[in-house]
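User:
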Amino acid sequence: MLVPESELKWFSVQPSPGVFDFSGYRRMAAFAHANDMDMRGHVFVWHRANPDWLEGALTDRRTAEKILASHIKRVTQETAPLIRNWDVVNEAIDTESGREDGLREESIWLKALGPDYIPLAFKLAHAADPGLTLAYNDYGLEQGDGGNRRKRRCTLRMLEKCLRAGGPVHALGLQSHLQAHMPLAHNDFRSFLRDVRALGLALYITELDLDVSRLFGRMDDRIKLAQNYLRAYLDLVQEEGAIEMLLTWGLSDRYSWLRKDNPGLAGALPLDADFDRGPMWGTLKEGWLHI
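Assistant: Predicted structure:
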């Protein structure tokens, strides 16, 4: 399965008002078709990767709803029938925002539409193509610190409110950008997964990678420690058969976003910087029941 990292974000597909450019996506879609691969959509609504014109165009609620609906409809028309599973809203929660609901204050959609922009986005995606599976996607949910704990609570409340408002959410995407120096949540995380499933939602791992930059020692030693950490995480999420899909955020260490600040970083993804099978490949093969 292929997931476009940027090729379906707003700044890529609608760089000017009403002007759509799907050239990047179409190259990926052609590759997927030629190799009998599925694709997954990412993303309709995010606080980042928006074109310069967009925020200024959201002058009032009616206009903002119209722009959002038009964008989602055009993108779903382009990507059907290949893409049937979408991240609709991405990273809407920021527990440092100061808001009681934990919503991210810098979101242009929160500013234009208020908190109900989340169920609205899901309703618009469903209206554009009722056959789509629609997910909310976020990071910082897996680990045991206070920030992750608050984020789990805020995320669960947001999903409950979205469903009550008629937002057709079908799944929660756990990005799982794992930081190997941070403890996993264990019992609190298990409880969170059960609560999400009790809402009727599927659970995905959508952007798995391993950050070993803040471990100590030689890189080889860090990688070994991180693989043990990943195996513990895989065991944790599979205890109740909870996770239905696992995707890594990239394939090779050479192109991992984590190398931007740590050029020598290794062991973040299944393939190393030379495109050979790395330690994560073996960990996933041994620790993930579906491989």
